[in-house]
Structure formats: structure tokens, C-alpha cells
Amino acid sequence: METKSIMIVGVGGQGTLLASRILGSVLGTAGYEVKVSEVHGMSQRGGSVVTYIRYGEKVYSPVIEKGQADMIVSFEQLEAARYVSYLKKGGTIITNTQKISPMPVITGAAEYPDGIIDKIKAMGINIIAVDALSAAEKSRQCKSR
């Protein structure tokens, strides 16, 4: 089996790290060799969090370079836009429709971009938008807002 690469991206506090650890564990249990890596410098302050999961018969590195991700799972749509360049041609983005304003937007120094999902679609990228926050609230599994 060819090595597959998945990125999970989001904002600190959304569960990005936990999700990558769970997915890595499940893939390992399924018999794949798995490498997981995470970058979460400002995650405790609501900053960007990115994790890399690579799996297959033999995986040499956890790092995913630009243009190599088979799939990006984004817990926040601005993060989908931030990491879209990592997606390989023919790859898929699954993104939450939730918007979490970064600090420059909160302070008024910038505006949250409009139409992120439509702009990604216009690039010819397969993107699936899901209102995960509403689904979590309906199932009473929403831990934070």
C-alpha cells in the first residue's frame, strides 16, 4: 500500500491533537505503520494547530510537505485556507463551517475573510463543508464554544 498522508488542522482548544492521536491509534490497530507529528506553538492561546498523520506499509517520516496531503481535516474554515497548499492534486478537504476569529480580527486590525469555502471550491478542490458545531451541540457533546 502506498503511504497516505492526512493533516488535521484547527485552533487551540478544538481537540486537534486528541483527534490525531485517536486516528493514529486506530490506524495502528488496523495494522498500518503510523507516524504522527504535531505543531502547536501558540495552541494554548487559540493559535493554529497542525498535525500530520502518515500511514502505510512502511513510513519513514511523519512530515507532510506542500502538495503531499491526501486529505486535510479542518476544524475551522480559516485553517482550511491556511493549509490548502499542502493538499495534493485530487485530494479532499473536510472542513467545519465554524468561524473562530484570530487575534488580529478580535482587535480590529483585520477582518475575517468572506467566502472561504467558495474560494477553495473555485480552485477546483474537492471540499466538504460540515456544520460540526451544530452536530456536537445536538448530540450534547459540545465542550466549548
From TrEMBL:
Record domain Pyruvate/ketoisovalerate oxidoreductase catalytic: where: 12-139
Species this chain originates from: human gut metagenome
Keyword terms of this UniProt record: Oxidoreductase, Pyruvate
Pfam families: POR (PF01558)
Gene3D superfamilies in the cross-refs: Pyruvate-ferredoxin oxidoreductase, PFOR, domain III (3.40.920.10)
Keyword Oxidoreductase: yes
Official protein name in the record: Indolepyruvate ferredoxin oxidoreductase, beta subunit
InterPro entries referenced in this protein's UniProt entry, alphabetically: IorB_Oxidoreductase (IPR052198), Pyrv/ketoisovalerate_OxRed_cat (IPR019752), Pyrv_flavodox_OxRed_cen (IPR002869)
Entry's Gene Ontology molecular function annotations: oxidoreductase activity, acting on the aldehyde or oxo group of donors
Taxon lineage: unclassified sequences, metagenomes, organismal metagenomes
